[in-house]
């Protein structure tokens, strides 16, 4: 299967290893991966701040880069959701875990990762892309990220007290409401610390970046890894 890889700005600039892990993971799963060289921002930061009317050039450039592909894959739930809702594509865009479970039909992965892992389910992924069930709903539970993590040898998934609570990042919210954002991140980390998380993971590097900043400032021992990095390393 041939797929085009969309790497969001902050991953390209600050966490290139996440992009590399995503590429390698998709190739291990049998995909032919293409990286359009002229891709840039999808326009999400502007749109989330109320300036979608000035994102026309971002939209056109995104279409120019990705319209020729049936499948576009990205290791970011928030950027994927923005494209799904605001940028018409001839093909379809999928968040990485969504693509692996729903399109490649991978039910489990064989590999090894000997750590206690705490999963952060970001709001865009959970409530927008439906990657896992929301705890406030009286409905059967499912979690696509947990589905791929739980069968890795040596990996222990940490049970959190509030498993789908927001970390407080919220894109430009963390700039406009810095104090509230930081306190929400501290509360989210307290749950992981209380329950013994060794490696904190998730599908949105933006959320992980926010919590990693707090971890570093407060000198906690938790390591932060995108779920693509864990899966790629494990298999």
TrEMBL record:
InterPro entries xrefs: Cys_rich_dom
Residues in Cysteine-rich domain copies: 3-84, 117-211
GO cellular component: cytosol
GO function terms (MF aspect): oxidoreductase activity
Pfam family, one: CCG
Superkingdom of origin: Bacteria
Protein name in the entry: (Fe-S)-binding protein
Source species: Lacihabitans soyangensis
